[in-house]
Structure formats: C-alpha cells, structure tokens
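We modelled the chain as a single entity of 145 amino acids. Its sequence is:
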Amino acid sequence: MNNIKQLIVLMGLLSVLCGIPTMAQIAHNVTFDAPSAFYAGNAKMPAGSYTVTQPNVDDNLLLIEDASGSHSVFVEFVVAPSNTPHAQTDVTFNKYANVDFLSAVWIEGRNSEMQILPSKAEQKAAKAADAEKHSLSAKNTGDTK
C-alpha cells in the first residue's frame, strides 16, 4: 500500500513538472519598437517594429520578425520562473559596450520569463565586458492561433 502512495505522489509531481513549460507560451503576438539595431541570436536586426511569436507551442523557439517581413530569425529560449507575476509585457536586452542582444521576453501577469539563449557573439562580448540590462515596453496583442 505504501508503494502505491509513493507512486501516486511521484506521478503527481511529474505531471506538475510537465506543465511548467506551457506557462511561458506566447498565446498572442508580442510587439515592440527597437530604437536601434540589436542582435537576436546570431542575426543583426535593424531598428524598427518587431513581432515575437511562438509558431509551435511544443518547441522552445521564438520567431522575431520585423514589420515588413524582410528581417526574421528563430531563437531558442528557456523558461525561467519568477516568484511574482510580471507587471507588464516587455523585452529585455543585454548591452555590451554599444551592442544590444535580445535577452528575454516577459508577458504581463506571468510568473516566468522566456530567456533567449545567448549566441556565441554574446558569450564573447560577455567575456570582454559586463552587461547593462535594459527593457523596452511591449504589447501583447491579438491571438495567433
């Protein structure tokens, strides 16, 4: 009987852990305006308006695309939990010297952020200087499904 209780508890914990990645999914588009060029993954993106979507909720990939559709890139992310819900939707950048790297996407009211995995260029920049974090306000808009 004790083994059955342990199995039930273990199965319950596993089901909770399997649900954690779904908490960071983007059910809507996140849009933001970048006042200057930045890197998303290995791609240099010019200043302008951008949309962030998660094309497949089963993958930890985000599509970053400018308003004209002429610049786009897929970036990998990991879910990073937070103790408190985020107050607003925004995107966070790491700045090394005068170069910005997209670092994270926050969705208003969520207890987790989508941290963009650093590219080799960002890892190299991080060895040379400390990052200055800064955020841009974003909007969580219309449903993409």
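As a brief sanity check on the tokenised model: The CA atoms of residues 27 and 114 lie 13 Å apart. DSSP finds two helices and eleven strands in the chain.
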